[in-house]
Amino acid sequence: MKKKKINIEPPKKFLSFAEHLSSLFPDINTDLAQSGNKTEPKTHIATCLYRSANTSAMMGAMFVLLSIFTRNSSLFALGAIIIPIMFIFSFYSGLYAPKAKALKDARKIDAELPYALRHLLIEVKSGIPIYQSLVTISEGYGCVSENIKDMLKEINGGKSEIEALEENIIKNPSFTYRKSFWQILNSLKTGTALEKTLQSTVDNIIKDQILSIKRYGQELNPYTLMYMMIGVIVPSLGITFLMLLSSFTGMVIGKTLFYGILVGLLLFQLLFLNIVKTKRPLVKL
Questions:
Q1: Which of 81, 76, 46 has its CA nearest to residue 62?
Q2: pLDDT digits over 190-249, tens only?
Q3: What whole-number distance in Å separates Cα of residue 47 and Cα of residue 5?
Q4: How far apart (Å, rounded) are the C-alpha atoms in residues 178 and 173?
Q5: What is the Cα–Cα distance from 209 to 281, expressed in whole angstroms?
Q6: CA distance 3 to 278
């Protein structure tokens, strides 16, 4: 069973303040629409403010209790520095969470799109109407199929194919998807041959994917060099240098330093793997 998401309703004071702030974040409405979030921009901003304020208040109370129990007044000064930073970080993390989700969904759509469009091309070439062709790709193509299902629901609800396509294009987070279906939409509006449009669209997407793989391969060269320098050469030479320095100067090197180097290397490994994974083009083979 799926867990129901608990929505935190912000107080009216936060909503009125967020309404004034909404002009500072004009892209929030687009980010919310492309991430599938139906929340109004001012409500989203108010929720982020409310959650950030709660987090900051809890952290402030923690610092106050710690300073009382430890009788260390310097914790007040530390809290005064950390709490505003925590508030800003929490606010912007929540504010741009829809954008992060939209970007993640866009990568998944780009991976499935050429195969869905190729299937659509085969259906159209066979003389099947565009609606029935869209029905055939509403299953088996991940996020692309989910978007097609939403479009078909709008069409079944009474909207024309052109209107449903226009709304679906606007709400989709993938630039490649928007570009491809915009060309299909123009073909439907002008009455030009849909087969040629789909064929050129599929060919262009595949070419772009091949170029992205080549670019990724070229980007790996400096990343590999950086990994060899920071992950292998610097630690081994650094430890050797420290051992020589301790033998000549009599300086004692404790276990803490070696454990610190080990933890630092582990964090670097995780960061490096994350960067490589993020940069890798999500192409379905």
A1: 76
A2: 877 788 888 888 888 888 888 888 888 787 788 888 888 877 777 777 777 777 777 777
A3: 14
A4: 8
A5: 8
A6: 28
DSSP states along 9-56: PPPHHHHHHHHHHGGG-TTHHHHHHHTT----HHHHHHHHHHHHHHHH
pTM: 0.70
For residue 207, what are the contacts with CB-CB under 8 A and spacing of at least 6?
none
- What's the chain's Rg over C-alpha atoms? 27
Residues 228/218, Cβ–Cβ less than 8 Å: no
Reference 267, options 256, 278, 275; nearest CA is 275
Q: Output the six-digit token pair for 17.
A: 């303040």
172/61 Cα distance (integer angstroms): 43
* Nearest alpha-carbon partner for 55 in 88, 80, 77, 10: 88
pLDDT digits (tens, 9 = 90+) for 13-70: 777 777 778 788 888 888 888 888 888 888 888 888 888 888 888 888 887 887 778 7
Closest CA to 49 of 10, 84, 79: 10
Alpha helices in 73-156 (DSSP H): 74-95, 97-125, 130-136, 142-156
Q: What is the pLDDT of residues 177-205, one digit of tens each?
A: 998 889 888 888 887 778 888 888 888 88
Structure tokens at 210: 């091949």
> What is the C-alpha separation between 35 and 101, in angstroms, rounded?
6
CA distance 150 to 148: 5
